[in-house]
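Researcher: Good morning. I'm working through a list of sequences from a screen, and I'd like to move beyond sequence-only analysis. For each chain I'm collecting a predicted structure so we can compare shapes side by side. This is the next one on the list. No need for commentary yet; just the structure.
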Amino acid sequence: MAERAKKKKRNPIVAYFKPFGLRQLSALMLIAGIITAFVGIIIAFNTFNNWVAIIGAIVIGVAALVGIYYCLSFILKKDVNKRDPEYRSAIVSMCFLGALLLLAVLGVVAGLIW
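Model: Good morning. Structure tokens for this chain:
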């Protein structure tokens, strides 16, 4: 019987942030923007001051733009295989981030109007 080489278990969070780049930056900005927008919505219901929610929507919009840029730079590579799962994931992520960008712009506009 051949001995199996024991694999060292890696923390999934460390594995995700090991090659730190645009994807990880976009994820961190999205988390910060969602928390800021949520806190801003709670503050807006109590004090009718919605600037924190507007700032959260702006951060979400910028994070979505960074994510879209990352996905487009991956999709437009010349040597990428169209059947690659990462290629398909980039297309799905770009669609999701585009919808998130639209919601962020609508949130900023609605926050400025009301």
